[in-house]
Every structure is written in C-alpha cells, then in structure tokens.
C-alpha cells in the first residue's frame, strides 16, 4: 500500500467520523433549539389569551393561520399546569399528514371552564432541519473531495524528490567508481535521507575502493616474486653443467610457481566477478567463441583421441566477451580433461541453453560440492579447484542457471540462459 | 641492439638483463621512474621493457612522455596486472605489446625481437641463420635454400627456437607460446612432442641439419652458430 493511500484512508475516515458525529450533535442541538422556540411561541400565545381573558373576561377573537391554529372547547376538567402534546393532523394544502405541537390549558370565563388548545405545525421546523442536514452532508462531501484532490496533488508533489532518490539508489552501483550524489532538497526529512544515503555510499565506496586496490596490489605483489622465480628458473635451465635430476627438480619448482600464479589469478577473477566489476553489456556471439576455443585445442583433442560433436545455433547474448571466453574455456578444459580416451564430447547450443556432455573417464561427481571453491575429486590432478567455482559465479552474475547431472556414464553440465525473465 | 630494462624488482631486472644479453642485446637496467626518464631523455633505444608500477611514478607516464616527444622506441609493458583495461590503455598510449607477469624469458625475448623487427625494418625482415631463412612477414621458410611448407604452429615454433637459439626452452614455455595459458595442458605434452617431431622431419627432408636437441625431457634447444 502506498503511503499516500494509507494516509488518505486514515484522513478520510477521520474526517467522515468527525463530520457524522458533528452532524448528529448539530441535529440534536438544532432540534432542541427549534422545539424550544416552537414551545416558546405556543406559550406566548397562551399568555396572550390568558391576559385577554383576565382583562376582558371573554375569549379573544381567534385568527387561525395555516401553520398555527387554536381550538376552544367547553370542558369540565381543569388543567393546573399547561401540557405540551404532539399530534398528527391532515394538511389540506400539502395533502399529507403532518405533525404538530399542541399546548393544552384551561381558562375560566364566568364560571365556565374552557379547554384551549394552541396548535403549531412542525412542518416548518422539519423542513428547516432537512435543509440544514442536506447542506451539511453536501458540505462534507465537498470538503472530502477537495481534501482528497489537494492531498493527492500536494503529496505527490511533495514526495517527488523521494521517488527520485529511490530511482537514484536503484540505479546505483558501487562499481560506478563514485559515491552516490543525491541533491539537496527543501524538505528537511528528505534532505536528511539524502544526506545519510550520500554518507553511507561514501563509506561503502571507500571500503570498496580499498578492497579493490588491495586485491590489485596483492596481485601485483604476488605475481612479481613469481616472475622472479620463473625468470630465475629460465636462467638455471641454461646452465649446461646441470644433471637431469636437478633439472627435473627445477621444473617441478616451475610447475608449482605456475600453479600458484594461476591460483592467484583465479581468486582475483572470482573477487572481480563478486564485486560486479564486469558490466554485461557487450553483444557476444557464443557460437563463434565455442568454435574458436575448440580450434585452439585441436592438437590437444587429437592427442587424446577425443571426438567433439557440436550442434550449435547462432546465439548472440548481452554478455561480457572476456567472461564468456573464460566460461567456455573452463567448461571445455574440464570436458577434455575428464573424457575417457576415444570418448565423445557433445556440445549443444541454442537460444535457451548450452549443454556440455562428455563420456566420463571417472565416476559421478558430488553434485552438491562441485561448485564449491577448492573442491577437488580424488583424481583431479593438479587443477586449481576453482574452475567450476568461476563458472558458477559467472552464471550467477549473468542470471544463468547451471546444473550438473551424471547420466548414462556421462558428465552433463547444463546452463539455462533465461532464468531471470 | 640496445634495450632499456625498467623494472624495480632488482632480481627480475637482473634475470632479464642476463637472458637478453646472452641473446646479443645490449641491456641497460634501471630501477625507478626518475632514472628511467633520465635515460630516455638522453638515449634512444630499440626497445624498452617497461614495468607499470614503479617507485616514483607510473610506467604509463613514461609512455606519455615518449609519445609527446615523438620518440619511436619500441615498448613492451610487463605488468602484474592482468586486466583488459590496463592492456588497452597501455596500447593506446603507444606501447607495442603487453606481457603479464610471470612470464618466460624466452617469451619476452621473442616479443622484443618482434617489436624490433617491426620498428627497425618496418616488418620487412628476413631472419637468416645457418641454413635457415625465415620471412616473418610472408610467413615463409627456406631450409637449405629450399622453400618448406610449415603449418602455422610449426612456423611459430621454428621462429621461437631461432630467436632463442642455444637456449634451453622448457615445455611449459613452448606450450604457453603456442597455445597461450588458457588451456589446461599442464600434464599433457604429447602433442608438443608431435609438433617438434614434425618440424624436425620437415627440416631433415629439405636437406637441412637437425639442430633441435631434447634436454633430459624437460625441454628443447636449437643449436645454432
């Protein structure tokens, strides 16, 4: 529910409640005042008659109007206190039954007791009440309508900077290489929000930049000694007096140095992917990359006597060229490495998925663990244990869904492209 | 051929100087930004081996300086940063090549030679040594005066051996030179052996002398005068 809707609901119900309560009270007060006024009129009529009777000892000449009339009857009964009564009469003019207020009292003229009833129609009072209620209700409606319209316009306008802030936050990425810069707003609360967000992203960005430069520097600091090791080994190899055994040892040092270097590059790559330092906005031709990667490995494939079967359609995705290359490199390297001699690697690519199947040289892998970092099955040899973790991270970044199956003595890696749509 | 080696890690700098000197280059080592700029101001070099992160400044500033002063020295960047942006900005600033640390000295050597060929001879260079003649532009090879058909990989391999003549080159270095380091080939060198065998066969059948020697199974070297 929107804040405005919520606010409006509360506001309108409170307004209606107040107005209804007010109207009811107003009705009763008005009714009371009008009835009292009616009674007052009747009483003053009574006084006039009594006064006339006392002065002239005769009944006054009675002049009736449409809304007020007096009846005089001889009566034996005496009323000490004048009595008010309600009655219904038929109004000839309006052709309907209407209520009237009566005041009953008795006067004594020359020993004869008269019962005098002063009537006054309530029609006027009722009409007045009806009109007043109508006007009140109308006013409530008009006020509510105006309230709603004003609030809507005003609040939408007031909240505009808020929505702008939200849009800016949504669009913000730490890898944009600058903190969020939200504008100053004339409203204190929004200003506070923007200021806080600016400060927050500033500190996030600072941390991010520090982390980034740390990983980069760490890479530099580690690759340099590795470069020293490698260059020294290249020089050592040139010494003709070395025995075969020494040479073999030197070479195993080189292998270790090379693995360390690859391991570090892989970790750096993982960090970069996790930090979302790659923007996936390049149009990448997947088929072209796969065919290129297979061609690069022609000799390796031939030497293992592996057969590669491709069934690829033209697929162009909004992706990152370098990441796509790494993705297929790793998948293909694994497929070649773990295919049995004379085995088949089957690669299928279409708009929905890419699937790598290869005849297994070994048993099924643990599907729960294979994408974990440094997971190495017993026969994985000297891999870094990061290849599949990198594949998984790239898929996560791109919103692809990767799964592993072992079926019919084949390793199957299936990547579905459109999981997010 | 004069080379300037700009690298702050003295041990690595020394290795490069030693290896490249043995290949017939005159190498001058410098270890910081200030000395590098001083050398460049005074002398011209055929190729500069340039580290990016230097004490006292960035290697990229040296590239800018070279560009502003219309110096035509060839430059190869050697950097620990394996990032695409750095490569692109380096090349944009006029570097001729980019090599990521750690690298094999034989690889550095072959790349430096390529830069010098491009710069000095505008690419029109025929490397002629003993009975081998390599046209690096036309990608043709004459053995014993006889044109010999080589595959692309065999051509690269021969050039690699010739540039690094009389040097022991490990299988790793050969594999990386021919196939890059994307491939997972650490435990499988059979196909390298197959390429070398084929190259030898072609040289012998053209009447050339087989100069490729296997070194205890760790690598190979080509013996040339």
Describe this structure as you would to a colleague:
The complex is a heterodimer of chains A (421) and B (225). The relative contact order of chain A is 0.06. Chain A has 3 domains: 3-145, no CATH class; 188-274, Helix Hairpins (Orthogonal Bundle), CATH 1.10.287; 282-416, Heat Shock Protein 90 (2-Layer Sandwich), CATH 3.30.565. Chain A contains 8 helices and 11 strands. In chain A, helix 4 packs parallel to helix 8 (387-398) and helix 7 (321-337) runs antiparallel to helix 8 (387-398). Chain A is α+β, with helices and mostly antiparallel strands. In chain A, 55% of the residues lie in helices and 19% in strands. Chain B is α/β, with parallel strands linked by helices. Chain B has 2 domains: 2-120, Response regulator (Rossmann fold, 3-Layer(aba) Sandwich); 126-222, Winged helix-like DNA-binding domain superfamily/Winged helix DNA-binding domain (Arc Repressor Mutant, subunit A). Chain B has 8 helices and 14 strands. Chain B has helices spanning 10-22, 33-42, 59-68, 84-92, 105-120, 152-163, 171-179, 190-205, and strands at residues 2-6, 26-30, 47-51, 53-54, 57-58, 74-79, 97-100, 126-129, 132-135, 140-143, 146-148, 169-170, 212-215, 219-222. In chain B, the strands form 4 sheets. Chain B has a 5-stranded parallel β-sheet with strand order 2-1-3-6-7, with helices on both faces. In chain B, strand 6 (74-79), helix 4 (84-92) and strand 7 form a beta-alpha-beta unit. The longest helix of chain B has 16 residues, at 105-120. Chains A and B meet through helix 3, helix 4, helix 6 and helix 7 of A and helix 1, strand 12, helix 7 and helix 8 of B.
């Amino acid at each position: 529910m929107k804040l405005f809707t919520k606010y409006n609901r509360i506001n309108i119900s409170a307004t209606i409640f107040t107005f209804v309560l007010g109207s009811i009270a107003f009705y009763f007060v008005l009714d009371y005042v009008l009835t009292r006024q009616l009674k007052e009129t009747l009483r003053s009529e009574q006084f006039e008659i009594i006064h006339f009777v006392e002065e002239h000892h005769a009944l006054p000449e009675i002049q009736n109007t449409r809304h007020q009339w007096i009846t005089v009857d001889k009566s034996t009964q005496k009323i000490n206190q004048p009595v008010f009564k309600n009655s219904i009469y038929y109004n000839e003019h309006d052709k309907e039954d209407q209520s009237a207020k009566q005041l009953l009292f008795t006067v004594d003229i020359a020993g004869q007791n008269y019962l005098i009833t002063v009537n006054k129609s309530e029609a006027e009072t009722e009409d007045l009440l009806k009109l007043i209620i109508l006007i009140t209700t109308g006013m409530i409606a008009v006020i509510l309508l105006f309230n709603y319209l004003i609030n809507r316009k005003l609040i939408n306008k007031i909240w505009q900077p808020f929505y702008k802030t939200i849009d800016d936050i949504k669009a913000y990425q730490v890898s944009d290489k600058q903190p969020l810069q939200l504008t100053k707003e004339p409203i204190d609360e929004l200003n506070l929000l923007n200021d806080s967000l600016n400060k927050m992203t500033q500190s996030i960005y600072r941390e991010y930049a520090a982390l980034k430069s740390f990983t980069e520097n760490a890479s530099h600091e580690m690759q340099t000694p590795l470069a020293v090791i490698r260059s020294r080994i290249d020089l050592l190899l040139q010494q003709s007096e070395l025995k075969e055994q020494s040479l073999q040892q030197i070479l195993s040092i080189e292998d270790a140095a090379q693995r360390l270097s690859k391991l570090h590059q892989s970790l750096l790559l993982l960090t970069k992917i996790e930090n979302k330092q790659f923007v996936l906005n390049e149009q990448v031709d997947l088929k072209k990359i796969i065919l290129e990667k297979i061609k690069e490995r022609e000799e390796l494939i031939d030497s293992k006597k592996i057969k590669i079967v491709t069934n690829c359609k033209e697929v162009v995705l909004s992706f990152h060229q370098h990441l796509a290359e790494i993705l297929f490199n790793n998948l293909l390297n694994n497929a070649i490495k773990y295919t049995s001699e004379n085995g088949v690697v089957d690669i299928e690519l279409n708009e929905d998925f890419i699937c790598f199947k290869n005849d297994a040289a070994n048993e099924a892998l643990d599907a729960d663990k294979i994408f974990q970092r440094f997971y190495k099955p017993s026969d994985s040899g000297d891999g870094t244990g990061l290849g599949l973790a990198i594949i998984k991270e790239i898929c996560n970044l791109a919103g692809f869904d990767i799964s592993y199956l072992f079926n019919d003595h084949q390793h199957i890696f299936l990547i579905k492209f459109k999981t997010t749509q | 051929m004069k080379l300037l080696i700009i690298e702050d890690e003295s041990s690595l700098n020394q290795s490069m100087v030693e290896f490249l000197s043995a290949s017939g280059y005159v190498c001058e080592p410098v270890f910081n930004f200030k000395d590098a700029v001083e050398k460049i101001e005074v002398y011209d070099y055929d190729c500069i081996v340039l580290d990016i992160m230097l004490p006292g400044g960035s290697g990229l500033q040296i590239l800018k300086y070279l560009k502003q002063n219309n110096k035509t020295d060839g430059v190869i960047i050697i950097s620990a940063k394996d990032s695409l942006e750095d490569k692109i900005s380096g090349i944009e600033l006029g570097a001729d090549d980019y090599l990521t640390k750690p690298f094999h000295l034989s690889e550095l050597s072959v790349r430096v030679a390529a830069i010098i060929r491009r710069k000095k001879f505008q690419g029109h260079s025929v490397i002629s040594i003993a009975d081998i003649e390599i046209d690096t532009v036309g990608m043709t090879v004459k053995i014993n005066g006889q044109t010999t058909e080589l595959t692309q990989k065999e051509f690269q391999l021969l050039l690699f051996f010739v540039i690094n003549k009389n040097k022991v080159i490990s299988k790793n270095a050969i594999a990386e030179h021919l196939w890059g380091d994307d491939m997972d080939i650490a435990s499988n060198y059979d196909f390298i052996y197959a390429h070398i065998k084929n190259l030898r066969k072609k040289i012998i059948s053209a009447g050339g002398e087989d100069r490729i020697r296997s070194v205890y199974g760790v690598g190979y070297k080509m013996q040339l005068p």
